[in-house]
Each structure stands twice: as C-alpha cells, then as structure tokens.
Amino acid sequence: MTPGAARRERDRPWLMRTYAGHSTAEASNELYRRNLAKGQTGLSVAFDLPTQTGYDPDHVLARGEVGRVGVPVAHLGDMRRLFQDIPLTRMNTSMTINATAMWLLALYQVVAEEQGMDEEAVAALQGTTQNDIVKEYLSRGTHVFPPGPSLRLTTDMITYTVNHIPKWNPINICSYHLQEAGATPVQEIAYAMSTAIAVLDAVFASGQVPRERRGEVVARISFFVNAGVRFVEEMCKMRAFGRIWDTLTRERYGVEDARQRRFRYGVQVNSLGLTEAQPENNVQRIVLEMLAVTLSKDARARAVQLPAWNEALGLPRPWDQQWSLRIQQVLAHESDLLEYEDLFAGSHVVEAKVAELVAQATAEMAHIQELGGAMAAVESGYLKSQLVSSHAERRARIESGEEKIVGVNVYETTEPNPLTADLDTAIMTVDPANEARVVASLHDWRVARDEQRAQKALSRLRSDAAGDENLMGATLECARAGVTTGEWSWALRDVFGEFRAPTGVSSAPVAVAAAEGSPMAEVRGRVARTAAELGGGRLRLLVGKPGLDGHSNGAEQIAVRARDAGFEVVYQGIRLTPEQIVSAAVAEDVHCVGLSILSGSHAALVPDVLARMRRAGVDEVPVVVGGIIPAADAKDLREAGVAAVFTPKDFGITEIIGRIVDEIRLANKLEV
Q: Catalytic site residue 551?
C-alpha cells in the first residue's frame, strides 16, 4: 500500500451474513455461534417451510419438510434454544419470514425480555423481518392469508415497531425472488416500489402514526434485492432504485430529511444463476454479483449474504458457507475498496443506463397504479403473468444459445471436478429421523404448558382480528402463553381465510415458436401423434407441487411449455398433499404426473404419491420428478418406480417435454 493510501480513512464494511438454519433449534444455534466466531457480523435466519407457512411440525402438509430448508420454530421454547448464549442486545438479526412475520418477531421480543432486557433495552433491538407478502404471491409461495388481511398484519407490525422497537426494520421489501421468478431489472424496481407504495399508503391510512412521524416510518423501510451476473446493469439498477425511492418519499409522502429518504438495502446475490453443471463456476459468479452491490459507494448494500457454490446440488455444509463468508472478508479487509469515494460518479455510461432504468420503471409503476396498485395487480394476476412471461422468454434465450451460460450451453467440456468427486459428501443432508424428534418435542411442549392461558390468548387473537385492534399485542400474549406457530396461524385463518394466488400460466404468451424443422415442432408432432394413437383427445399432463415448497418457477415453465407443445395441462398451483395430487390425476384421467420439489422433501412425498397411485389403480401412469435432487436420491426414486428424474442440469425445457412424451409412449407400449 502506498503512503497516501495508508492515510485514507476506510468506510465501515457492510454487515456480513450467511443465510442459515436447519434440522433443529439446537443444531442451528451451534451453527450460528460458529459462524459468529468466524467473523460473521450479523445473523440471517432461515426458517423451515412449516414455520414460514404457519403449520406445526405434526401437520399433514409438514411431512418431509421439517428442518429441511431452515430451522423449525414451533413455539417460544424453540426460539429460546435458537438464540441461547447469543446476546440479542449486541446482535443484528435478519429473519426471512413473511406470512408469519408478526409471530416470529413476537417470539424474538419475548426471548429478549427473558434474557433480562427491560423495556428500554428491547426498544434498542436491531434487525429485520422480511415481511413482504406481495413477492410471496408472485414468486416464493409462502403466503397464507388474502392480500387485505396480509396488508393489515404488515401495517400493524410496522406501526408497533416504530412505536416500541424503533431501530428494527419491520419490512424488507424483497425484489430478490422477483428476479428469480423472471423479473427484468425494470420489473424488479417497479414491482418492489409499487409494493412499498401499497404498504406505506396502508400504514398512513391506518391512523396509527401521526403525520409528523411519517419520516420515522419511511426511515425503517428497507429492501432486499438480487444481484445477477450482468455486473454493469445490476450496479445501475441499484443507483436507479435509490433515485426513485428518494423522489417517491419526498414527493408522495413529504419526507424532507434526506437521511430518512436514504435507500437502505441488503442483498443476496443470485441463486438462480448457480449451475449444477460445472458448479465450480458458481464461485466467480458469486464474486461478480457481490461486486455489483459493493463497488459503488453511493449504491452500496448495507448487508450482504452470499449463497454457497454448491446450492444447486443441495444443502451447503458449514465449510461451504465459510467460503462465501471469506469471499466477503477478503474484499472488505484486504482490498482498498473502502478507501475511496464512489468509483462511478460522472460516468456517462452509468448515467445513461440509470436514467433509462428510472424512466422505464417509473412508467411501469404508473401503469400498476392505474390498475389499482400492487395488491389489485396481484389479485388480477397481472404481475404474476408478467413474471411468468419474462421467465419463459429468458429460458428460451438460454435454450437457443442467445444467452450463454458457461458450462451449461457453451464450453461444456470439463475435467473431473474434485469438489464433487464424492457427491454424497459434497452437500449436507438432514437426518430423516429429525422430524420425529421435533414432533415429539412439540407434543411435550403442549402437554407442559398452561392450556387455559393458551386458549384464552388464542380467543383474544381471534377477537382482535375480527375487530380493528393492532394484532401485535394479542400475538405477544400468545407467544408468552405457549401458543404454537400452527395455532397462531389457524386462529387467524379462522377469521381471515386462506388465499391461493394466481399461477399466471394460462395467460402467459407462447415463448418458443414451433417453426418448421425446430425442436418444438418435432415435439408438437410427437404429442399429436401419441394422442391420436391413444385415441383419447389431447395428451393430459398433471403438474403437481406436493408439500410446502412454494418455488413454482420451474413447475410454471414446464406447464407453459407443455401447453405450447399441445398438452392439456392440469396445474392447480402450490401446496398440495399427495392425496390431492392423486385425486386430481384420477379425476382428470391424465397420461403423466409431473412432480416439482425443490425443498428436499422428495424422499418422503414422492413414494407417498406412488403408493397412492397404486392403491387408486392408476400405477400405469408414469410419474416424473424435477427438483434439486442428489444423485443417490434420484437413483432411489427411479428404483421406487419414478419414470424420470430431472435436475437443474436438464435446462432444455423442450427436451424435457420430449422425454415426457417418451415416457408416456413407453408406459402405453408404443414405439419410442
């Protein structure tokens, strides 16, 4: 380092996190403490799908999902164990939780109180609850309640934290999953900002915050974004986000203090672009994506969490997460990045791209407002159909080779990979017996609690939900009384009902034309020929999402492409039991059942579907499965009777549809 550089004052690094949690509260607590000892500066809690969607571990839909993609938290005892020996007064905790965000924040506050924190200390808690339900309707699928009641829960949480935990970020408006669902940079900005408008309008209309404190509310709104590999575009996207937010909060909400209008965001770089093929390439992708949100001081993330190189293969091990943490630490502490002002100020290239993004995103925001705002655009299906269409167009570009993915559709020749030489040890697996232990612990908790107090708290929650009381007070009493996650959620379901979001499949335009001589034309011909040979009208494909996995992007793209290939597609959306899927297969007399599972619950749910099909007398119908499925599990599934297993390396959707036709022909003893 030169003498001049040595005298420069370095900026404070961003918060460094890894998104983590698995198996049990005890196992996750041990992982968190190890990560903090390695230099991680904040926690990012991953909850399992039952916790995210408001089910207890013993619910039928929780089967195979407990502790798979995060930590199960069913009650206050679990939250105590999760943060044991981690002083919350000194912690900045991010919780990726949405439909049940109010419940998890209440549990967190009560644990803080039990650690000896008085009211003043609780008010100093720092962290973030994601709490963005709009993107759940559009992309991630962990929604529970309809848009109106969901917005009420968000509003009540925001007003409560502003008044009682003023350093907490009660919402992390999340465009991350929008990009994973196919959003362009313009859509990512416009949909996130439209969500912010819907939330802030609702908060201020509730009358729970006086007009003179609007700036305090705006100052606690944070964002969680995605950074893809198109470095320049992603960096400009962040600058555009900041400019639009500054204008919006000043002009629409009258916030004069520039500090309160600051665009505050955290980032997880793009997991969508991580590949199963040549997964070592994921390391440089992660680094490039991190640079897009750290190099530019004027648009630098306040918190960064990086995926691991092997997330397309399965659950990362602690060592893999450590590697991602070290990537951040090398940039922050070894390079001179934090010693300089903004590196891109004055760049005419950057300014032009930012101006373009601002103009296009502002126009799309105006269109959404014309439709009645973000919530109306969710209920009408407009936002979902736009994302499905954008994603279909991107997949078509990849399959045609227009968009190049190294190791996938270009430069596919590779040397043997020592990182994946033993695939069984290249990822972490959750002990299948873990679920039974968690369920047993839940039953013990229910037996030991004061049942009368728990039922009284639930009665108050239902009563407050039916009225207009802020629901945080009743929720805190439920937490203290030993109520479980499922009980809290079902009490609100009783009042609010549930919501099944539009799939966006039926309205998606054709993404791949069946031009003469094209692969799509060949598959369409085989679909029509097979249907004619079977003599039953069109071929029928059931696309099913068993369990609680709400990542429906892959299922939607299969459904759209199968439709375009001439199939009649039966797709009822996410969160179905094996029983419901088999009932639909029988009722619709389908020729093939396709199951999509990304959560790791395939080992429990797929055999259940197969067994139910045998009992229903339709075991001659081929079943194909797609998802993040380790090689050993894929072998087990095929031995159990699955006709074909597709993983992220099978990126050609038209080819997948062709293979489905082959399986239908084989099952019906037709020549392939």
A: yes
